[in-house]
Every structure is written in structure tokens, then in C-alpha cells.
């Protein structure tokens, strides 16, 4: 019933219904997500905030886990501005954590609004203070940097990604392999292959994410032979391919030349069968 009124955006009836559900103690996290998504999409922002206060009056305490689920749901529905509004207005009752900021940063990056993503980032830094800087590779540090770097590299904004990676290092946060793989992919896509390999060589034990960054980059440039050479080097160094590796190569080698070419370095059948044999 609630879902029907939510999709119809009949806000007044929806509001009466959630009050009745609150009085009867029938509210759960799904109620929050459905009601707030409907209110946010109708730009009923004051009611979005009031909903939390209303439920608190019915005995549903302010809850960070519930807030984060709501924020994640709204960001997934492209309602990230509305999600941020709710977080800011409820800050005195529910203090956001790294998960909250992570959803917002990812939401703004996914929308392409890096200015707003930077504002949220600064909010997170200001709230985290010194203790946040001391954390490495948790939701306050490496992973949040990684989200922004990954988005920038995927969308060709390598300069910004490089600046953020330098800031990471200045804060004493070591990038994880997924972040490094994103940077390597970005360098290759921008035809800066030498810098990509320089980064690879600086990694003591390159893993799957690093090699996938190279492979995806070369396939993006339609350099199937170079991607295959990376694949073979990966196996030689004892890093066994996974199914995703083969799927990438399949996509890169589709077509007459890739499927049936005489050169074994760009022949998909040779790569797939040979790779499986070598990986056993």
C-alpha cells in the first residue's frame, strides 16, 4: 500500500499513512526507504527531515544504520542532493559516519558533480579531524579517495585523479591495489604508457587489479596485442587469471582478426585455451 502511494507521489495520503503505521508500530527500514524516496522525489524536503522526528516520537529512535540505508537508497535513485540535505539537517540528532559520506561522495561523482563531491569530502575531513587522518584504508581514508580516483580515471580526468593520489600520500594513506589499477588504467587510456609501467614497476607484488588496469587500458585503445602480452606476463609472474580476465580479452578480441587471426598473440582461441592450460 505504501509503495503504491509512493510511486503515485500522493504525498498527503502517504503522510497520513506513515503516521498511522507509526502509531501501530508497523514501521521498518523499508518504510523509511519507500516513504523518503517518494518525499524526496516530490521535493518535500522539510517532510523528509520531519519524517525522522515523527518516527522518533512514535518510539523509533534516531538510528545511523537506518539513515545510511536511506542515503544509499536515495543516491541509487539519483537523489543525492536530497540525501545530502537530510544528512545535514539531521546532523544534531544522527552523526554521519564514513559510510554516509562514502555514499554521498560516490553519488555526486556518479552524477559528475565533482564540486559538490569535494564539498562533501571537506565536510568529512572537518568532522573527522585528526583521528580521521590517522586512519588508513578505512571508509574515512583510502576507500573514499579510491572512489573519487576510480571515477575520475574512468571518465578521463587523469589530472584530477593524480592530484588526489598525491594528497593521499601526503596524508600517509597508502592506495590499495584497486586504486592503483584505476590510475594505471587512466595512464594507459591517455597514451601515457611509460608512466603506467613506471607505476607498475614501483609495486612490490602486482596483483590482479594492477594487471587488469593495464589490460583494460590497452583494450580501450584497441591494442589487443599489448593486452595479450600483459596477460602472458601476468601468468608468468604467478598471478592466475580469473574468469573476468578472459571475458575482458574476449570482448577485446571479438571480430574476424581476433577470433581467427594467424598471429597467436592476437588470436582469442590461443589466448583462452592456452591461458587455461598455463593456469592449471
Automatic annotation (TrEMBL):
Keywords: Repeat
InterPro entries given in the database record: PPR-containing_protein (IPR050667), PPR_rpt (IPR002885), TPR-like_helical_dom_sf (IPR011990)
PROSITE patterns per record: PPR
Keyword Cell wall biogenesis/degradation: no
Stretches forming PPR repeats: 97-131, 141-175, 207-241
Similarity section: Belongs to the PPR family. P subfamily.
Protein name: Pentatricopeptide repeat-containing protein
Organism ancestry: Eukaryota, Viridiplantae, Streptophyta, Embryophyta, Tracheophyta
